[in-house]
Amino acid sequence: MAKTPNLVVIGTVAIDELSTPFGAQQIVFGGSASYFSYAASFFTKVGVAAVVGQDFPVEYRKVLEEKGIDLSHLVTLPGKTFHWKGKYEADMNSAITLQTDLNVLLDFKPELRYDPIPEFVFLANVDPDLQLKVLDQVHGASLKFVACDTMNFWIQSKRASVEKVLRRVHAVFMNDGEARQLTGEVNLIKAAQAIHNMGPEYVIVKKGEHGALLYSHEGVFVYPAYPLDSVYDPTGAGDSFAGGVMGYLASAKKVNLKIMKTAIGYGTIVASFTVEKFGLDRLREIKRENFDKRLEVLKKICKI
Amino acid sequence: MAKTPNLVVIGTVAIDELSTPFGAQQIVFGGSASYFSYAASFFTKVGVAAVVGQDFPVEYRKVLEEKGIDLSHLVTLPGKTFHWKGKYEADMNSAITLQTDLNVLLDFKPELRYDPIPEFVFLANVDPDLQLKVLDQVHGASLKFVACDTMNFWIQSKRASVEKVLRRVHAVFMNDGEARQLTGEVNLIKAAQAIHNMGPEYVIVKKGEHGALLYSHEGVFVYPAYPLDSVYDPTGAGDSFAGGVMGYLASAKKVNLKIMKTAIGYGTIVASFTVEKFGLDRLREIKRENFDKRLEVLKKICKI
User: What's this model's pTM, rounded to 2 decimal places?
Assistant: First the structure.
């Protein structure tokens, strides 16, 4: 069995098909676990628990392996890899899903065989009933911090399960629309507060180009996005944001409000690189130092 | 003739009729120059150049006089005061105009009789041809800084005049939609840069609940809004934001990037109070110290 990484992500590995106002690409390495793990790997040792089909390209596997990502829990099943086709229109703010082929994802039954369990666990956006099954496997003295993501589809169709997940995690990442949908609160601060009351100690609301908001026991904290004069492909921004946050937390080995605030700063920066090219192309060009430099710029330009 | 104030605003004084999800009020003291001057009066001596009708209530005049606002250029003309009726729906992000009665505003021909001219001048959102006529009166050794606002209606109907104004001011305040409309750039950083290239040294883009953005010769700076769990009435947020910014600048007696950044912090805070009640009701309850306290909170909660 592989050595237990500091952080594991349970999510999707996908082959995407994208079009944006700047161009289209028919085959893009995607999926929440791919973006998350690649982002986190800059900060800590991370593993991926996901499923792919027999068509999954060897070179994509190498992309993750080059970053030392543990693929002992990347299962190959008969059939095709999860495929998502989407497009972005001029405002680049939200993806329009054109086609979703779940393929092998239909048979995804994540089983964490790490012993001990990783200290940090991230449940990316998958069926909340699946998230609950993973949570049943995630316990023991080693466990420090569990966070999750979700999406509008599950809030709509499986609200009770989403709420059960929220009662069992330390942190949740959600976008602004989802936070409003889940709580019925238009005001985002109230929405974040309501989610905080559902269980998670840290509620991180992603606002795309408008940055992020953290609701904690000490109240609300606000973060602008890194201002970019060119956003090429927003796919993976949220997952690599979460990967940056969780990767930094795992590297710190503990979580408190101060560490969380720095982590969100890094998440913001990682996402700002992700969107500069298709898929993981931009992240593959950069080094950890690039994050630190850009974070210093962000600190400077948002200082009042 | 009245003593020249440090700052003068040329704009509207209005009687508004508002409804929001939290209630309706048939008679609210409004107008760009009212919000702007009231906000600025916390920081500096400010004058109002505007027009009202014979129905303008004495008690509204007193509201401004109590803050020491110079009303020597508040002209009363035969007829009724400018009247705006609007409503906000659940998301509170943009006003829906239900009725506009220009009334005496049709005969507004601002004439600045101050000698010398105030050091700081703000052209609130009025017909850009009127703004140009004021600019013709605004010169001399005393003059330090001129800023303007505008709106979608003028960008649509009098673009050439708006562009002429922009060539002649030091700073422009615009909301995100207007910046995109004026430049045809979806990306807000590119839009702000394009406006900067049209003339103004400082381009301040207002993003409502998402804060503000400053584009200057040193590039872009970003500001979150003060996070509020209850926004009661957004009317006047933009004008009181500009009033806070310009009031602080006028009190500093000069403008550089550092001073502008602090000024935008104060503008953000003033606007955060404005929206907590109808009209000027909330600003009338607070003191300058309240701004300082809330600015310290904002600095703390947006520090990465």
Answer: 0.92
